[in-house]
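Internal QA ticket QA-208
Title: Verify multi-chain structure generation after dependency bump
Assignee: T.L.

Test input:
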Amino acid sequence: MNYYARRLVTLFLTVLFVVVLTFTAFRIIPGNPALAILGTEASNEQIALLEAKLGTDRPLLVQFGHWLGNAALLDFGESLRFSEPVLKLIVSRVPVTLSLALLALVISVCTAVPLGILAAKSHGKKWDALISIGTQFGLAIPSFWMGIILILVFGLTLRWFSVSSYVPWSESPILALKSIVLPAVALAIPQIAVIVRYLRTTMLEQLNLDYVRTARSKGLSERSIQYIHVLKNALLPVITIVGINFGELLAGSLVIEQVFTLPGFGSLLITAIGNRDYPLVQGLVLLIAVTVIIINFIVDLSYRWLDPKIRLK
Amino acid sequence: MVGNQVERQKILDIRNLRIELKGRRERLAVVDGVSLSVSQGETLGIVGESGCGKSVLSLSMLGLLPKAMEINGGEIWYGEREDEAQPLHLLKPKELRKIRGREVAMVFQDPMSSLNNSLTIGYQVTEGLRLHLGYSRQEAAAQAIELFRKVGLARPEKLLKEYPHQLSGGMRQRVMIAIAIACNPGLLIADEPTTALDVTIQAQILEVMRQIRDQDGTSIVLISHDLGLIAEMCDRIAVMYAGRIVEEGSVADIFDRPRHPYTIGLLNSIPSPSHKGHRLHSIPGAVPALHERSVGCNFAPRCQYAMECCRIEQPKLSPVGFGHTTSCFLVVEEGVRKGDNRNTADRAEGTGEVLYETSVAAEGTGAASR
Amino acid sequence: MRINKSFSLVLGSLFVGLLLVIMIISLFYTPYGENVMSITERLQAPGSAHWLGTDNFGRDVLSRIMVGAQTAFLVGSISVAIGLTCGFIVGTLAGYVGGWVDELLMRATDALLAFPGILLALLLVSIFKPNMFQTIIAIGVLSVPSFARVIRSGVLQHREADYVRAARGIGAGHFNVIFIQILPNIISSIITTAALSFSTAILVEAALSYLGLGVQPPDPSWGRMLNEAQGYLNKAPWYALAPGLLITLSVLGFNLLGDGIRDLRDNVNRGG
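Actual output:
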């Protein structure tokens, strides 16, 4: 129980830190935020009106308390640009970003696990070398450039996918899937590299352990040793990596959405930053960051639950 | 007991085995010209200091040598009947796998790391049964419960679903034994099976192994650095030094009539109540590393009686009694006066004293050089 | 295996060296002015006049890429310097002082790490008007946690070592202990972290500039070149290749260099 208590305290502190950072980021702007938003030509009435709307005319702590109280109820105020509640804007973009990140996660795990096993099995041989060169490139290629290349190859040259025309899931799931396949692949590639490298190292470490020798002494084939004995031990730590990756995928989708002009969190955030739409930026950053933190927390707990050595203690 | 052995069928026959460590420039012998045999129902003890090649030898009997090592010369034959004997050194991996766990099984030293922590005990025990004997899950589980009872594990039904870390070291080693005897193998190899355990648990594990031998007639190769343990369990003992067998004989031969200076040194280093207050005997120096091994007798650098010929030529294993062989020039010379056991026993005691003095001297220089 | 290890070091140094050479040459010579526009030469394919073609304003892509290397190195080295300095202070304080200071600093570091990198950079970038200076600051802040962690664990590991106790015993001050006794022991892991942070910096700068929130015109940046190139993918696909390839090569180079140095250190440690 001690562990869970400590983990909860860390979770709480992290969220608090994120909240404070998100809040103060827009209060440390030199001068008047309303002025910064409206520009120098704004009249005094306009500024006073915006200050009242932003709440920046009140003392800092009062502002923070007010903002925090509302944020806890998922009320992030109203977007300056769209004149709609921030939450409503964000919720309308959830399907795009979430489906993109989930598809990328599925692609990365389904590709990385077999590749990692193959690399470990052919340790020091041709496949291992090829895969390790591949992972180095996977880590180095910027995902947005990969996206551009995918558009160039599959969209413009081969014409397998129509680019830059997102179809909502509610309209046609098949077309929606088709429109997010390429961005999901671009997003998945660096994560594939991370998982492959990790899985390979873990499996090679495991293969040197005593229990593998025991398994061999039973007369098991190398195949069942690798797929049952070693993989079961090697996959557990990979789960943590996959959890961290989901956060990376959510963040990565912010950029990839711009490449494929998908109407998700990314385009909303970039537009909001461009328009100096502070309530929207704050709400989005806070929501994404807290989501990532909570996912990591859940993954951490599930890892402990899945590992029999820790679970049953 | 000694008399019976000769008529019994040999289940394991190792002839002039040489195992080498593959190096970039040279190949070094880890096991060098070892010949051993185990008869049906017999327990053979292999004793020696760490680094003498006994674990490598035992792994070779299962074809489980590390990748860096390979057999280069010699033969390993296994078979419960003479006409069924199979050359383990020639078998393909696939054929070897049919023998591992089915015909020849092994218990390893460290029960804490030798079990897979993320699979249930039940799975790990039934795995071999399902593979080799084609049992169904239910049949295998039932058999596993039977095995748990046999090795003295309490609440066997519950154990099936538990994980290794929930068990104590002694219980884990019982599980390891249960895994090893699951398919009723003809030969059980136990490599330091009790070294990692508490003394009281050691005795229990030995008792389990003794029962298995007596009930099932399983032949056992017991590998240990602990002469006391070997004496308790074994019919015959092979003393190994730096990759070679230096003396082999019955328990009585080795303990009462040791001939090789190394065996004598080993025996003298066993603590006993009668020597209370005396300083413990130890053999000066250490087992030579692979590249330090010579053409002559490997024990010569540590031997009190080393002669000129010992450094040039390797003494052959020669009979010095009924079923008792040793490889030492000194003993072979003396062996002319065979049967004069009292004489050699006296000499043994004498050597012990001398060895004791040299060991003190070696310690002194060791401390100074440090 | 040994060949493989020095392989990453050699290849990494080669890529980074090549990049450095390109950058240094660009300081003195580029085929054309990087901002010289020519309406008549818009979107030309690679040829003898323009080796890598021209962009939508008729500017020479090769010249712009060469000058872009300056941006990448500038952003990379200053942000790594910021990350290293702050990380060193945080890590040393946490490791050396310990107790609640350690707890506080490490929790803050954890929190910073929990923030996805690009999101934090976007947050920081959105506060001010986008320019190169704030891009550097944002990326520098991003790299603080990894330096802090590496340095803290190094300090913790060596703080109680015999030679450090001995140095303290003969009256060495904290400054002496940290810089003379401990630092040389952890320098290789710091260099590894620096190399990896450098590659992250190049990636994040490219991403921010691609989004239009990083380096602003007229400073050439590989990331923004890709943004511009995407609009002309149909007419001038080659324009999108060169900047991306350079980002990839530089990230690959610094990653390999970091891996190589780490393996080298591991080997030395294992050797005795």
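Spot checks passed. The longest helix of chain C spans residues 61-97.
Status: verified.
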